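Hi there, hope your week has been kind to you so far. Thanks so much in advance, here it is.
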Amino acid sequence: MILSVLENGEIYDIKLSDVAFDTECDVLCVGVGAAGGYAALAAAREGLRVIAVEKDANVGGMPVNGRVTFYYYGFAGGSFEENDEKGKKYRELFGTSADHNNSDLMQAMLYRNLCEHGVKLVTKTVVTGVYFEGNRVVGARFFGNGKELNIKSKILIDATSDGHVIRMCPTETYLGRNADGKTVPFTVRCEMLDAEGRYRYNNSDSGYCNQYDAADFSKKIIDAHAARRHMPERNSRLVSMAPVCGVREGVRYKGEKTLRYEDIFLGNKPEKVLFYAYSDIDKHGHDLAIDDELYQNWWVISNLSTLTVRIPVPFGAVVPKDLCGIVTAGRCLSIDSYSSSAVRMNRDMFRMGECVGVASAMAVKSECDFLDIDYDAFVKKVEEFGCYSGDKNKNFGFDDQTGKMPYRPVNFNMSDDELMDMLATDKPGPAIWAAYRYGGEALAKRLVSALEDNGEFLRYNAAIALGIMGRKEGLEVLRELVRNRSCFYFKDCRRSNQFRSCIAICLLGRLGDASDIELLRPIVFDDGEFERALYHTLKPAYIFCSLENCNYVLFQHFTHAAMAICKLSKSCGVNVKDDFKKRLSGESLQKIINAITWESPDGAFYGEVRDFTDHVRETLGC
């Protein structure tokens, strides 16, 4: 019998008799972070022999080493709640308030639970190869503590989040969004004490990076730490920085099933659900102008950035295509870039790990593949554990994580009368999306009539609704919004609300004609644009965006206008290549950067401006 070892991208053929396995187990869990810890725990709880291997010296992953100890979205339920509850009596010892976890405490509770359930834990050890028997993973090779370790397994769980095992397998992988391959921005968490001695934290975005490029990643981390040192909150004293930065997105792969963001937006449900996640669809990047059109429809044009969604993760999204004996747990999934922004919250990672661990144990016990277990029995078991479905009363809705505002459900399948009433407000987002999803000729006629309305909102919002429906009847009103551009923004969301004039610019890029290039040109090519009052009316921090050290109003108008011109030049056959080549180089480019970043190179935004201009040049070939 022949085994294949895939190591660092190369395949070697090795006779089975030549592989000296040091030990064997039922379930081999590689990575003992938020998902891996609970995957190993769940499998061991089912009575299986579990070995968990971790590259760090401790367990817990981002909640521990990244100090992301609070819960932001994600559903409650599962073993992590039991751990949190048991840890309450120790919180005073660890100096933690009653409503806030502590990284050391979270690590201690998880470690105790793993030991109590008989998990054999190996730390400071990295995976270096994968053993195959045909298309089935039968074990892995590791190196740690000065020696090589070979472990045979019946099923392997890659819970490394960055796909350290998956990338060694003959599996198709992907990285970043369609437009430019960039993953969502990473963050560095720093902790402070304010003037009154109260604990504060800052984990602002630190820009784009490629964590698989050692030089790029190292430089970005150093820059981010340096920027954080100069950006503590007013009258605060910097206490510490998390030893591990927060990477929100990593490699993805082709699985037996894939979670796609269009299915989330459109409410499609897979036949078999592994578990339900819960979050808004927030990619954290600010260059919305180059996002996919459907994502723009949701986030920009419909202003639904903080609308939360109950997300059914397909059962097959943790199984690599055409491979057996290996599954994943954590943010490395068969998923698209936008969906991965939502399926990564701490509580959901705990719950996913537990569901994967239960299903893996069932596969071993039944001597079948992961996908062939008794699915109904699986659902019954994980429902009993509380880690499967989450709050069934929450589907689409606005949810304030601070608890200051009640949950507000949203039903897009509204009547035309309800839709028109909502368009007559400064919170038209759900109605605009409803027009896109369900609007027909009868609604279009009413929207066209509303273009003559004298109210403050209905006329403009009707033009936007027509635009998202792909209709041109509202083009003149959209042009009016661009000519009279202002810093007015919709108020649907608790943050990240969109500027109405940027929405109009975005739609002109799709629906307009060559004349609209001239309408948009001053926003991109005229230095005098930077002095307009709309870019100097709002404070840096307000309900739209909490970014500092940048003129976000100008950035959004500039980027949307630049991409709209690029789209119109392509559709209308107008050459703007030379204009952009001149504008986005040398002193001219520096003026743009200075105007948007307020001449401050600190923080991630300086890099985002440069990344955007690089994308435009690449798009136009200049």
User: Anything to note?
Assistant: The mean pLDDT is 89.
